[in-house]
Amino acid sequence: MKFFIDTADINEIKKAKELGILDGITTNPTLVSKIGRPYREVLTEVSGEVDGPVSAEVISVDYEGMIKEGRELAKIRDNINIKIPLIEDGLRAVKTLKSDGIKTNVTLCFNSVQALMAAKAGASFISPFVGRLDDVSEEGMDVVEEIRAIYDNYCFDTEIIVASIRNPLHIKIAALTGADIATIPFSVFRQIIKHPLTDVGLAKFIEDYKKIPK
Ligand code: E4P
Q1: Which residue has the CA at smallest separation from atom 1 of ligand 1?
Q2: Catalytic annotation on 83?
């Protein structure tokens, strides 16, 4: 299972990278807006920080606009893939960008049939938003399970990125379901390492070591 970080903050990326378990980055316009610098400048900076895939999202919602923007963003660096919204023009854009040799991450996916459509269009990645589904009292992880089954039934090689992750439980279920990737906010990266019994156990070992005759 691959771990991406869901951020446009270079300091968070550097810290996650230090852990030695970072495989890629996802961004979106909301995350970039928090940085307070121009869109392209931020994407250029973060994509230089890792060798793995980095998702850069288009702002246009029409086919021509998405193609134009996607081609421009893809020029930033070889590891950039283009995030395209799961709408009709988006699926058309995925097919065209694929024929250009540009990878895509189809975003804002909320059910498994949408994910089937994205795979048929040739998406490299699909991003089901589990947290936002949970927020409206639907089971986000059920959608991931269904997508895994559908992709396996038909041998689609589109990779599933579990997105909109809110807590460690989302990551556990994503792993059990066989999702390819979890894109994790920095705050959750920290949570998944920690357990109170680890801290208590470690303190006791250190204390007891002091009792050993020197
Ligand atoms: C990543 O690809 C998504 O844009 C992101 O995970 C959305 O997360 P949110 O629902 O917390 O905004």
Answers
A1: 163
A2: yes
